[in-house]
Amino acid sequence: MLRLFFLGESGVGKTHFARALHQASERANEAFIDVNCSAIPESLFESEMFGYEPGSFTGASKKGKTGLIELADQGTLFLDEIGEIPLSMQSKLLKVIQDKEVIRIGGVRPKKVDFRLITSTNQNLSEMIKHGSFRQDLFYRLSVISITIPPLRERKEDIAMLAYYYLQKFNEKYRMRKSLHPATIDKLIHYHWPGNVRELQNMMERLVITSETNIIHPDNLPSDIQMDRTQKTDSLLLKNMKGKTLREAMEEVEILWLRRAVKQCKTTYEMAEFLGISQSNVVRKLKKYRIKLKPYQHL
Q: Which residues form the Sigma-54 factor interaction domain (predicted)?
């Protein structure tokens, strides 16, 4: 039973990576069972994952139910948001991984299962282990091969490719013939994408539906994407400086840069080089604004 563990921020595309691995494997013709662990109520988790025998509890179907683990037999089981699995269920999942068999609720005969297990999370499981909300032995069982998926802002080369992929997908879905202007692609590449791939996907669907022309221009984009980082910074600075004199505004900028220098440099000589001014000027300004050096720093 091959086990892979994806780490990454919410929306980076962990499900897409899991599905791509399944489709490229020898199990591609078998089931891919995608389970969002955070979406299953704790009271239903055991019956959904392990299934149950007929009449095993009040309200149970007379035919019984096949659990998601059984459905993944010979295929791939993808457990997204693994950190949300109830602590009481973690030991049962660990046993399935160890013994490669599952027992339904109300059942006595174990059934052998063989599946590729892929899990993912955006949580710090090491911290959860320290606080007793995640089993350490399960963590070690899951993380045989750990892969960290970088956020989209660190994968600039993927942005255009993903934008065209979703453009084609939603053109087909809504029977449109939209295309992206080169300047629009440039804006997308320079945006920081806090919502990662999921944000890009949702935005492309909205653009395909709402843009009035077949060519999607930069002015069709949300204002946050239209405005580059320099413009945002300038806008924020002007907003913060509103009602202040030029001298007051310049002093605030000086304080900001001096504090940054104190944070990054070890001596006032290094600060001088960082700021592009003389060392004596650095010392004078530190005294003027009453900015203290850290204990390990010196003049």
A: 1-209
Domains: count for the chain? 3
**pLDDT one-digit tens code per residue, 45-102:** 999 999 999 988 877 888 899 999 999 999 999 999 999 999 999 999 999 999 999 9
Residues 72 and 204 reside in one and the same domain: no
Quote the strand ranges of 40-99, DSSP E: 51-52, 65-66, 76-80
Local structure of residue 256 (DSSP, 8 states): H
**If we measure between CA atoms, which residue out of 164, 165, 170, 163 comes closest to residue 208?**
170
Tell me if 299 is assigned to some domain. Answer: no
Residue 240, H or E segment: helix 229-240
| Residue-wise pLDDT tens digits, 5-61 | 999 998 999 999 999 999 999 999 999 999 999 999 999 999 999 999 998 887 788
| Same structural domain, 145 and 157 | no
Inside any domain, residue 236 = no
Q: Which range of residues forms the domain containing residue 170?
A: 153-226
